[in-house]
Design goal:
Layout: H1 7-10, E1 50-52, E2 76-78, E3 83-84, E4 105-107, E5 111-112, E6 129-131, E7 138-139, E8 151-154
Parallel strand pairs: 1-2, 2-4, 3-5
Antiparallel strand pairs: 4-8, 6-7, 6-8
Length: 155
């Protein structure tokens, strides 16, 4: 297929940036093992409703700044397969979800050592995120060093 061996394409930041009419995308077969920068890969994909990047290998990532920035319609995202190592400073590294105003659900990565802020959304006054099935514990950042995959939901 078109993206079967996309490593040479994926080396570029902004790969799908400003694909404003993109509503869905299957990126499950992308070979991302050697990728060091995921800067604004999906930035300004304003109509994208969900994305599953759980199969992406991110162990060599140095930057993820704005990876999903301004994905205004994004409701669900699956990061469960991500291995997010220590990232190099790139402006405000923690803002990979800035402008994800409709985000309701995040399948969290297991191996996370960085503080990655959860988005402030338009659909919730208080922007309280909690792990599905665990009430009363709220998050402002993605939970770190999990032993099992969890789903964060916006209240």
């Amino acid at each position: 297929g078109l993206f079967q061996n996309c490593c040479s394409i994926c080396e570029k930041d902004l790969m799908f940036c400003r694909c404003e009419n993109l509503t869905s995308l299957d990126v499950s077969r992308f070979d991302t093992q050697k990728i060091k920068s995921f800067v604004s890969v999906f930035g300004s994909c304003k109509k994208l409703k969900s994305i599953d990047v759980s199969s992406w290998n991110t162990e060599n990532a140095l930057s993820m700044y704005g990876m999903f920035m301004d994905c205004e319609s994004l409701e669900t995202i699956d990061l469960s397969g991500f291995d997010i190592p220590e990232l190099e400073p790139y402006y405000d590294e923690i803002s990979i979800f800035t402008g994800c105003d409709m985000l309701q659900e995040i399948k969290c990565p297991l191996h996370l050592t960085e503080d990655i802020l959860l988005p402030e959304t338009l659909s919730s006054e208080e922007n309280l995120w909690e792990i599905e099935g665990v009430s009363g514990v709220y998050y402002k950042t993605l939970p770190k060093n999990l032993n099992e995959s969890v789903v964060l939901r916006l209240l």
